[in-house]
Structures are given as structure tokens and as C-alpha cells.
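Justification of resources, computational component.

The compute hours requested in this renewal are based largely on the per-chain cost of generating structure records like the one below. Each record pairs the submitted sequence with a full C-alpha cell output. That output is archived, and it is also reused by downstream analysis tasks.
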Amino acid sequence: MNRVYVVGVGMTKFEKPETRQWRYFDMAREAGTAALDDAGVRYEQVEQVAAGYVLGPSTCGQRAAYELGLTGVPVYNVNNNCATGSTALLMAAQWVAGGLNDCVLALGFEQMKKGALGGGMNNDDFNASPLARHYTLMAELHGFEPTPPTAQIFGDAAREHMDEYGTTAEQLALVAAKNHRHSVNNPNAQFQVEYSVQDILAAKEIHRPLTKLQCSPTSDGSAAAVVVSERFVEEHGLADRAVEIVAQAMTTDTAEAFDTRSMIDVVGRPMSRDAARTVYDASGLGPDDLDVIELHDCFSINELITYEAIGLCGEGEGGKLIADGATTYGGRWVVNPSGGLISKGHPLGATGLAQCAEITWQLRGTAGARQVDGARVGMAHNIGLGGAAVVSLFRKV
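The structure output for this chain reads:
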């Protein structure tokens, strides 16, 4: 397999829906152009495009890519729920690793509506929903309430974590406080306001125990990455900006997700654990080698679950890890220096590629006020219910 590198990244500012009078292809043009300019690559050099989005009709990927050029290259439309952006990155990396291409583009975008994200029902037919199995088990165990179903399923996982491991509401709020604090230094973040733990606990409850400030918002935005081969790096003198994708893995649900009858597993702990193990085995690296991590904190509880799944701590110890300050500046790792989904925002198709952009900037040493000192190895973790978990390991060249 060929070695694979990211040589250019770009993203728009993530914004509350309807803040700007722009459309998804305007966002894609802005992010895609920024990534190409960052790489010093012309769109005419791009051989294939993986375009990720969730909420639009078919061939939106072509409409977005056409803003960058009309070259006739293949454009693949990617939809993998909230893991869409990282799935597009994985596809692009596989094309290069397999020797099919030397220069490809991964592009993600989303134009969303105000308000909570719906449950993904098809024509109000519950059984047709991709998440019918997940929500059915949730209803059996915890009931079904008139609140956003994604908040319910993660809120139920939070209560299970509290009951089983003694995790506290304050520890959950610490996750959100950390990520909101980190976002103050990110000009691309949707929110750039610091909140105290008490502010977060006092915010409007969305689904117990999760308050509004512990939930990722709906967002508009786009992100992109130029992915190339080692030969392309050498021929075009791009070593100074290249970050290697050392290993990647995508997993989907196994029987474990449902057989344990635990919302912690339904929302993705087994998928995240298995994907992390795969990339550790493939790379020869482990949790102790990581310096900076962008992980999928769609709700505060998912950050704690993911700490455990990717091996930063033992099962049930996520609350203690955040309380000890191990996942912020001055701790063992810096997790979500961008502000994460909770504060940076969560335009579904762009999220995974925005994670890639942040890790790339961190490993280049160009992240400004949020720079993690001496960062050499980074991880991105992106998960979508229904389900897909993508874990990528990056290394400074």
C-alpha cells in the first residue's frame, strides 16, 4: 500500500443555520478553494472527488465540486450520517493507498435548518428509519419522550453511565466547559464563549441529564482536504506541509451494540473501540503516543464514552479522567482543541473533515493560540448512529 498524506486543508466558519445568505455549494467552494490553495494544488490536478453530505438530494456533490472546476473527474456522493466527512476522507485515502490516484479531494458540507436535528424518519414511517432498531431498544428500556430522539438516546446513555460507574452531572458538565473554553481561540467555531460548570448545569435541560450547552448545535459549514501520494509530495515539493495518514479504520454495528441492551453500546462504544484497536494494530502506535485528539462529542457523554473506547482510560473511568484535567492543556492529552462539536459546531457532512483540518494544523504547528505544544501524533474520531465509526491516525512528517 502506498503512503498517504494530507497536504492541504480548508474550512469555512461554522455558523448557525440561516446566519449567512449562502448555499451549500457556496460553502463548498470556500472550503475547497482554501484546501487547494493551502496545498498549492490546482483543481485540474485532482483526479477524483469524494463529496460528503447528509441532508441534500442526490448529486449535490457534483453541484458543489463544479464550483471548483469542470474537469470531468469522477465525483462520489457520500452519506454516512454524522460520520460522513471522515468516510469521504477514508475513501480518498484508500484511492491513494491503493495506487489508483496520486491527488484526490475529500469535500464535506451541510446546510441545515434551525432547531433540533430530527430522528431521520422516512415519511413518518418509524420502521423505515435507519435508526428504528436503536430507538426501539431505547423505548423498551427508557421510554420514548417528546424531546429530540438523538438527545434522548445519548441522555439515556448518560444516565446508564452514571448509574453503573458513578459518573456525576458535574463531570459531564466539565466536558462541555472544557470544549467551550477551547473554542474561544478558534475563529472558525460557531460559539466562542466560555461557560462555567455551573452555567452549563443551569442551562435549559434538553433530555436529562443533558443541558443545552452539552449538546452540539445544528450548523452550516464546509471543510475539505487534499490527499496525495508520497510520489506527489516528492514531485511537487510538498514535504513542508504534508501530514501522513498513518492508519484508518471504519467499523459498523455488531450484535454487541444491541445484545447488551445498553444505550452506551447502542450509541457506539463497540464501534469506536474496534476502530481504535484496528488503527493501533495497523500503526504500531497506542494511546500513549497520542498528543492531540479531535473526537465526536455530539453530546458531553459521548466524549466520556469515547475516552474509554479508544483506551485513554479504563471502562467507567471517563468521568475521573476529565475531572483530573488529563484531556486539556497541561494534561496528558489535549482533546478537542477546536472546541469540538459542542462548541465548534456540527454541520454533519463537514464535521469529520473539519477534524482532519484541526489535526493537520496542530501537527504543522500552525494552530495559533490553541496550539498543542510539540504535537506530533494526532487522532480523529467521528461517529454516526446507524452506524459508522471512523478513526484516523495522523503523524507529523
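The first helix runs from residue 24 to 39. Residues 119-123 have pLDDT under 50 and may be disordered.
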